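haha ok so turns out i had the wrong file open the whole time. this is the CORRECT one, sorry everyone. sequence first:
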Amino acid sequence: MPGWKCSGGSFASGDTCTEICGDGKNYGGNACDDGNTVSGDGCSSTCTIEPLWTCSGGSSTSPDLCIDICNDNRVVKRNFIGYCDNGDSGVTDGCGNNCVTETGYSCTGGSSKAGDTCIDICGDGLKVSTVGPTYCDDGNKVNSDGCSSTCSIESGWVCSGGSITSKDVCSDKCGDGRVMKRSSSSYCDDGGVVDGDGCSSTC
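then structure:
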């Protein structure tokens, strides 16, 4: 019968038949058959499913497809562009529970021993996580505009408004005695936030 090999028969006993491993057909006698006898691709050289993988789809006419198990906090193979695995706990952390990298994040570093680390992409104009009070994203990686090339608020500036759909807007910090950028011709900063001294409390 195609897909099987039989041997050992004699005048006293019948043959023992085993499914052929590596022919790209799975009749159910092997745990998997991806069409080769190479280990390290999910289906081992002896047609067993390797740790951290899942294999399915094999039949008498087609091989199994083996993919990295999603949400096991390990990465042995990126199943598709944007694939990630950090053992998702169901919270917005950069890697969705379907192992797809969420908008505004970059996920890297996963291996057979550890999951990915996901961080907010700096300079894309989206602030998807709260990294800290000095984190900002104004849509670029340019220094001296309030939000630095490493996405930190620069001295003398305040940045706000960043969200998962919009970038931060940075403006001169009022009352610190420095003028980083005049927002209008009437803008001033005398180092205080007191009215009645020529430069108002709102600069």
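The longest strand covers residues 4-7.
again sry for the mixup
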